Amino acid sequence: MDGCTAAQSVFGSPYELLFRALSLIPAAHYAALLLALGLVFLYNFLEIHFLRDLVTGFRGDPVKLTYNASSEVYRSVASKCQVLRGRYLPTPWLSSPHLQTAFLSFFGNPPRFTYKRVLFYTSDGGTIALDWLLHSDVNRGDGAYLSSRTFLQKNDEAPIVIVIPGLTSDSTAPYVKHLVFNMASQGWNVVVSNHRGLGGVQITSDCFYNAGWTEDARRVIDHIHQEYPETPLYVVGTSIGANILVKYLGEDTVNVPIVGAAAVCSPWDLAMCDRFFRRRFVQKLYDKVLTSGLVGYAKLHQTILSRLIDWDGLNKSRSVREFDHCATRILAKYETVDTFYRRSSAVNFVGNVAVPLLCISALDDPVCTRESIPWDECRHAFYSMNPNIVLAATKHGGHLGYFEGIAAGTMWWVRAVSEFLEVLHSSPLKNTPRQVVGTCSTTTPLESKIDQGPYVNLMEDGTVAAAGDIQKDNHAAAADTSNRGHTVKENGETITEEEEASNDVVETKKMDPAVKENGETIAEEEEPSNDVVETKKMDPAEDNPDEKKLNDLVSPMKGHITRLARHSKTFIWLLAYVAMVTTWPVVGSGLLLFLKKKFGSSFIPPTLRK
What we know:
Family: Belongs to the AB hydrolase superfamily. AB hydrolase 4 family.
Strand order of the largest sheet: 2-11-10-9-8-6-7-5-4
GO molecular function, one term: short-chain carboxylesterase activity
Keywords: Membrane, Transmembrane, Transmembrane helix
Radius of gyration: 33 Å
């Protein structure tokens, strides 16, 4: 102790010596250290993978293809696409999903050309701008504003590609121009179907587009098919446009007049993407950027929107969800935002797709989470084999970025879609009759199972709105209220418990309220003539032997379930005892005495009895 005290008196305290040593380090070294820490932070925050690419020799990562083993689309088309079977290497100085997405938004390196515009008027008075780029105009570079549709000859044999842009995007978006120019350069005629209110066109009706609005796409596709009935049609959707495209294909199934399609960076599940926006700080930044674009779009059409939606709430929106609450769900006539998300998500309709469909998604997409990608749906189509879908997933790419090359002059997904459509157009599948191989109905769209379950939407004012079909739910509720505890006859009358005990001829009086066969309530003046009804209760097993066999198989199982339910409390106590013994042996011994007293020695297993 004396030695330590003497040393401290000579050299001072250890902390004082440490601070003196730190003060001798030059300030430039501290600046270099802070710079290094900042770079490490940015490297991880921006999810940069340059060092990994450097270590692997900039070979890129293989494209993961998901398809059914018996898929003719894969064998005849995707397997012959060199781009899909190859690797994707991002531009080295854009080795980040955020850098890819930001570069696309601010720069994009789009090719230069001029569209030819045609205005398409819908039956509700809406106006949609159709921007065309013909294969014959690519080299000339001319173009003009047209008010007629005579510029494309009826005998033009070149296939037509219809492009549906993403959220608040139009034909001038860099990624759209990349796709349009690439397809036109290969001999295709391309038309961009701008969303209502975009592309410099004013809103002329009270109808607006949203992620689940497929009517505009349906009208445009049908219109072009009627104008050029002998020309093969293909459709490409990007981001929200991809969600609209897949939903349209699932709704119309075999009735779509197109040969094939491609969906790029689709959100798939809107509710899941909404939760994704609220997870991390960087996703919240994207949420604010998208909200700013939506609010800006709304302000362009304030004269119409201000009388249809909650305009004050829209101006205060700080997230896409808040915007959808104040505007989108009201215009789309949904009770809540969650209902709108569930009913509008393409994942609920992908199982009904009846034409060859290429789906491209990036696993590092900062806008559309990888968790919403329908891997199983593309493989099995809701437990049935669907050969119409090929899902291509890349490890990198960002949201619609996919820039490649040192100068970032090309986009990988544009080359992939272009090659897929080229091979499909020259394959026998172009003339193959369409069919839905899934178990979904081919006449009605596939609804989300969550809307058919006992789920409700809690609104902000505390009221509860049903998530399912309102009319159907009301009929079910009425039937359940009037017939609870009774059996219903074929003519709508109810059978009491006493009548159920006999299978002979029974006489029953009408219950109040009386119900007709179609479910309507019988008026009081109609009831006297129907007071007494003679009905013979039939045994369904007499007419259906298969049902009798099924009942024979199910009855023993019902008995086992009943016995299990009767002893459920005993099992819970036994589990509690096992947990206690394994955790606290002393407490477990005391609990064993309690269980013996409560249930008797028969409750305790033979190996534990004393």
